[in-house]
Amino acid sequence: MAQNLVIIESPFKAPTIKNYLGSNYKVIASKGHLRDLPKSTLGVDIENGFEARYINIRGKGDTIKELKKEAKSAAKIFFATDPDREGEAISWHLANVLGIPIEKTRRITFNELTKSAIKSAIKEPRNIDIELVNSQQARRILDRIVGYKLSPFLWKTVRSGLSAGRVQSAATRIIVDRENEIRAFIPKEYWTIDADLATANGGRLTAHFYGRNGEKTDLADRESAEAVLDLVEGRPFALTSLKKAVRTRHPAPPFTTSTLQQEASRKLGFQTQRIMRVAQELYEGINLGSANGGVQGLITYMRTDSLRVSADAVAMAKSYILEKFGDAHYPQQPRSYRAKAGAQDAHEAIRPSNVALEPELIKKHLTNDQYKLYKLIWSRFVASQMAAAEFDTVNAEFDVNGCLFRASGSTIRFGGFLAVYDDAEEDEAKRAHLPELTEGEVLTCLSLLPEQHFTEPPARYNEGSLIKFLEEKGIGRPSTYAPIVTTIIARGYVEREGKSLKPTELGEITTDIMVKHFPDIVNYAFTAQMEDKLDNIASGESDVQTVLSDFYEGFAKHLEEAEKTVTKEDIVIPEKETDIVCDKCGARMVIRQGRFGKFAACPNYPTCKNTKAIDKDGNLLEKTETAEKTGQLCELCGSEMLKRHGRYGEFLACSNYPKCKNAKPILKPVGVPCPKCGGDIVARNGKNRSFYYACDQYPTCDFRSWDKPTNEKCPDCGAILYVKKGKKLLVCNAEGCNYKKELPKTDE
Predict the structure, then answer these.
(1) Helix H or strand E encompassing 538
(2) Which of 279, 353, 403, 409 is the most exposed place for a label (fewest CB within 10 A)?
(3) Backbone phi, then psi, for 189, in 5-degree steps?
(4) Alpha-carbon distance 601 to 597, whole Å?
(5) Active-site annotation holder among 301, 320, 524, 693
(6) Could you tell me whether strands 237-249 and 389-400 are parallel, antiparallel, or unpaired per DSSP bridges?
(7) pTM of the model
């Protein structure tokens, strides 16, 4: 009997889904997109309705071949790519590659990797939603036009290798605008006066100067502060008003993509890319051991702007809260939350798939990052369904010779949701607790503390606050926030300074050009309106050609005008002078940016072409020997082979260069036998200055791996274990095995 075929995006989800569906289903991953616009050409026929020309992505040939083979023999084919526009487009491309008409497609989506969600989805397939696909295509075509048309303009006017993007340019402007606000800021002086007061029965509290004659009064200088001190020094503080109240504080809603990124940045110190990577791991499934049900997806889909929660999840939370905390901690009615205007609401909010899987219960099965993020998501969701917290608040006012001082305090009356989670920037429970006070009593002033302050400029954005701004302005969507931040840093327009984001000189110059010549691209409102238009395509209220035509008409005019009026001579990138003296002509060298980072260059280029290597702080790197004798002979000419240092690390090269150009990588054994032929595993240099592991007999033996193999065996299946690239994690890469083990931390 032929099997049913389920096509997903990520291979990491395959074992989980296969386990839930059983032997009658085969699960294969497309590993993302199979088709895209070509890199070498625009790939969009602007004159003929913005028709896109898609081609198969290089390197995807084997995957396409396998999918076609499996599809040919499959009883039914289900497209189970991610439940968003990008996933819908991938399913559409898959259907095209496999030759399946859209009206015959079986598209399934699930918000969480649980048995019930997957079983339910497989029972109710639908056709691919072409309007969602069109929305994704419009975004892709729009971004391609902007990038493909603007980038060459920047190459000619600023510097080769630059790129511009529709949303990244607006995001860079946000950082640049804030930097300009900081530069333009003029500090203003102001003063505060605090009074240390004592009650008759020995209680202590601090009251703050508020105003005079019942009105708020600002103390702008020392003279103003001294005038108040003259009025109150040596006088008793009479308590003229005492107000007690009970204040209620409701829990925050469960996470959306934006709020998760903001809160994980603030509380955990994670960068946006790290947050989304870990969230993806939690969504795709973790092996919790047989006692906890094996491999399970721990959270719902993590790209969402919805605050909606399913009835089943609400009931699950209610059951947990009543059992763990009692009736008092559950509200009279289940809580529901309303998303902001314009939210797509395609999925639920981010929540745990199973509330019963408490973070502490499964901690040993998670990496440290996974545990921290899961605990944050779990706690926020459970708290969002709990009763409000209540505080006893006290506000006291003191009159001293016409001067008004105030003091306030609060204590927790009932913790409610605070038993699980507190989202406050400052712990409210730690606010001042006032002693017992009686209206009309007189307090003794023990000391007065006048203090000078100056207003501070607005803070630079960090990743969390930038994402909050993007969301508030409607720039981008949940799936684009992390790539936006990553892109503007990678392109050299923005750099990190601690946790803050600061524009580079290149970013400021490029933004200045964009503001002058392409104002729509960097206009916040225009960018947000474009997002709304893309949403309208998804809902069927607009069509691709109308949206793209309206945009391109204005964009083409701006581009034509800019190409006529702006030249490279109009753009001057200031160069930072160093203390490094050129040893060829005596000039002070300047810092320049190259393909592989910053370097020191002689300002007299091209007359003097001297350059020197520098570190990230602009300090001259000590010159090292570029070649070492090895004693090995060149197999081509018999000369000695030398060890040299190149862009991608060490390599062997013939000493008779350039007459003999023999060169080869240095193979570094890792002390592990090849699992295929028993030869030695060696580390090899790969592209982009990274490395991989391969058999020393390659290509005779074709074993290769990006992860470092070890001599340890998997306790579940007996295969060798690998150290996961870029992580402190020991994993089994055998098909169908999900064994993971966190490695102990070291001082490295």
Answers:
(1) helix 524-538
(2) 409
(3) -80, 145
(4) 12
(5) 301
(6) antiparallel
(7) 0.77
